[in-house]
Amino acid sequence: MADAASRAEQRVARVRDEAAGRYALAQEFYRLAMGPRHQYGHAELSFMRWSLARGVLAPETSDPPGSPWWRAVNERLLRDKTEAHLLSVGATGTAGARSVEFWLDFIRTPEPGRWYRAHNASIVAGYLQHESLAAAESQVERFMMNVALLRILFTHAMLVRPRLALGRLAALGPVMADPRHRTVKMYLDLGRSFPTEYPVSTPIEETILDEHGLARMLDYGVIAPRLPALYEFSAASLDQPRLTDLLDDGVPAYAWPHADRPIWYIGNTGPHLAAIARATGVRLLWERSPLTRAHRRPHR
Predict the structure, then answer these.
(1) Tally of domains in the chain
(2) What is the value of pTM for the model shown?
(3) Could you tell me if 144 and 51 are in contact, meaning their C-beta atoms sit under 8 angstroms apart?
């Protein structure tokens, strides 16, 4: 009989070109591994529904085709979870990756911090494994990839390192970031921030400026000033030292050339952003940046 890793690969392969099948496999993990009364997976499944609506998980042979990168990262998550579940019920073999070990740990001891560690380890492994696919995507798509990454890292820190994530407001972190609560999807669901189409047709500057005001406050006022510490924490927690390489002097840099750094300063000015940053004990990214005022855009 094939070992857990081979069986997991076979199960993922069966749904590779069936977007709805991917979603069903993601649901099945929580039902089988956690039982009918499980409380986990709300944010993950919400993000998948957004991905399905955009069409990024559609087969590459469809019209229009799906995204090779989003499909690959999603497969990594599905494969890791499936392998861990098979191992937990007695399949032969050993965990083929650190991220699978983290999922096994979560299955054995379901706990919010363990869920974040397992989920984020799979996602980060997918990012690092498929950076060449990301480089082939549009600039606006790569911007969204970076935002998705920094948000999942931040939400994990809100739960287990709330002072790092929220400073003086640390007491709110564990309550707001508990993955058993449906409210956590507000931080992880990019549908509140970015277009639901793929590929995105609007220019990147317009896409950024159209981001929902609360989402922009979170991204620029709370998360951005903390990125170096946040990525260092996540690299250690997820056992992924390469993660810190995905910043360029504090600016997100996954599949992102240095010459495009100024894009991260579009639309992130405004007194309300400075106020929320100060409330959590930090200064805004642009306040600490050597970039000139000419690189920034007025707040809308």
Answers:
(1) 2
(2) 0.91
(3) no
